[in-house]
Design goal:
The protein has 163 residues and is of the alpha/beta class. The chain has one domain: Glutaredoxin. The protein contains 5 helices and 7 strands. It has a 7-stranded mixed beta sheet.
């Protein structure tokens, strides 16, 4: 029995943290309100929280762009959510343009969604399965993290095929 308890604790910690992504409405770059539920659209979705003043966020963007393009035909999408507030949100469009981002960008200027994750670090990424459940999360960016992201995406795609 004593050997089973640590294993149960690990299983509880790993699986107990899986939760649904909160359903909120956010503005897009055209100032249209979008329901996150509709944007997720039953796809495997990598959501990346970032801000214009976050240097690691900007470094990560080219990798997110490549991931977005590489997996688009496998029902995978990348969504970037800027947490810039009313003072800095004006810089978002020009940054998106200069980085040539090819994935959906939403604005969380009041951090309604971001605050649900009890983190203050950026970038912050979550992988959401087609049913809207968060299956992986990652904080920060150092070169090489994009390989971890892709490994998680591939793992999720394989589990979809099995399940």
């Amino acid at each position: 029995m004593m050997r089973i308890l640590p294993l149960l604790l690990i299983v509880t910690l790993v699986f107990g943290q899986e939760k649904n992504v909160p359903q909120v409405k956010l503005k897009d770059l055209k100032n249209k309100t979008q329901s996150l539920e509709k944007v997720l659209d039953g796809k495997l979705t990598l959501i990346n929280f970032w801000a214009t003043y976050c240097v690691p966020c900007r470094k990560e963007m080219k990798h997110l762009n490549r991931i977005s393009t590489a997996y688009t035909d496998q029902n995978v999408q990348v969504i970037g959510i800027s947490i810039d507030d009313s003072r800095t949100v004006g810089r978002v469009k020009s940054l998106v343009r200069s980085q040539k981002l090819n994935y959906t960008i939403l604005l969380d200027t009041e951090q309604k969604l971001y605050k649900n994750f009890n983190t203050s670090a950026m970038p912050f990424s979550i992988l959401v399965n087609p049913k809207g459940r968060i299956i992986w999360q990652h904080t920060g960016y150092i070169p090489g993290d994009e390989a971890k992201m892709e490994a998680e995406i591939q793992k999720a795609l394989k589990s979809q095929v099995k399940g």
